[in-house]
């Protein structure tokens, strides 16, 4: 039976980022995936590193800030292993607040807004400016995969997990391609929740579209309200696409794109920036967000399964939280004190689901 120090289930952004962090620390790692790497939420996302989004649960802020701190080194490591440099696409976000919020500080004046984005129609929103970056997950994903492939990480695709059995000091993983043994196991399978209790992590669908921005619309920042975001991809001087997202739906694993949902997204975006109503459509798609009952990630172990970890359930913030999740999960696995308090993310809070 093959043995590695740590076996990770799920070759998405979280699983591969963790694999890279562990490899960097000299640990032998096997990553299993039921299909192909980075093919689901990791490449469906818009790529906002939205640590200060007022709609995030407040418990996310410390780990979000840690991830923002770790992002430059994370991208540098990917670059040095893969030769691929992942660019930051935007550096600021115009964040809408409901009109009743008057104490947010630094609410932009109509003059500020006219200067920043002359075509914006603020309507019933107030706006603040956030120093927030975004990147293109479809650029990050191949670079991360190339980085992983440049290491000795054992990446096994098309491999389904049948069971994970904990023993004193090790785990045995039965898979469609035979058994393997590891000292510890980490489930990073998102809403596929290969080894989580039923209902601990479920899919929440997001439909989105991308458009080609008209050349006269110089959109170089993200515009976000509680119900919509517009995220330009800015680094190609010839063409500027923008992502418009996203619905939030409980539709199981269905990823059908509905014209009515896409039209609604576009009409919401056009209410903010009228020229988006005629911007040519490039693509439509849907992704599945891994969602826990309290919308917080699942990081750590259940009390009765000491070698069986979870690093999953990142809901709307998987791209943002990948570097910090890799960092703190590696710390947990190696018996170190995590850099931020993880008690809000402990699987113990969902223990009734596990019984
Ligand atoms: N990360 C953006 C979304 O969940 O739609």
Identify every distinct bound molecule in the structure, by name, code or SMILES: glycine
* Biggest pleated sheet: 8 strands, mixed
Give the overall shape, derived from the CA principal axes. elongated
Distance between the termini: 31 Å
Query: Number of DSSP strands?
Result: 17
Which fold name is given in CATH as the topology of the largest domain? FAD/NAD(P)-binding domain
Q: Which series of helices and strands comes N to C?
A: EHEHHEEHEEHEEEEEEEEHEEEHH
What is the SS-derived class? alpha/beta
CATH superfamily of the largest domain: FAD/NAD(P)-binding domain
H/I helix tally: 8
β-sheet strand percentage: 25-35%
Task: Indicate the CATH architecture of the largest domain.
Answer: 3-Layer(bba) Sandwich
Radius of gyration over all CA atoms, rounded:
21 Å
Low-confidence stretches: none
What is the total number of structural domains?
2
Mean pLDDT: 95
CATH top level label of the largest domain: Alpha Beta
Task: Name the helicity range.
Answer: 25-40%
Short structural description:
The chain has 355 residues and is an alpha/beta fold. The protein has eight helices and 17 strands.
Characterization of the model:
The chain is an alpha/beta fold and 355 residues long. It has two domains: 1-87 and 136-201 and 293-355, FAD/NAD(P)-binding domain, CATH 3.50.50.60; 89-134 and 202-291, 2-Layer Sandwich (D-Amino Acid Oxidase, Chain A, domain 2). The protein has helices at residues 13-24, 41-44, 61-82, 110-116, 137-149, 259-272, 318-333, 351-354; strands at 2-9, 29-32, 88-90, 93-98, 125-130, 134-135, 154-156, 161-167, 170-175, 178-187, 202-212, 222-224, 229-232, 241-245, 281-291, 298-301, 308-312. Strands 1, 2, 7, 8, 9, 10, 16 and 17 form an eight-stranded mixed beta sheet that branches. It has a seven-stranded mixed beta sheet with strand order 5-4-12-13-14-11-15. Helix 1 (13-24) packs parallel to helix 5 (137-149) and helix 3 crosses helix 5 (137-149). The structure holds glycine.
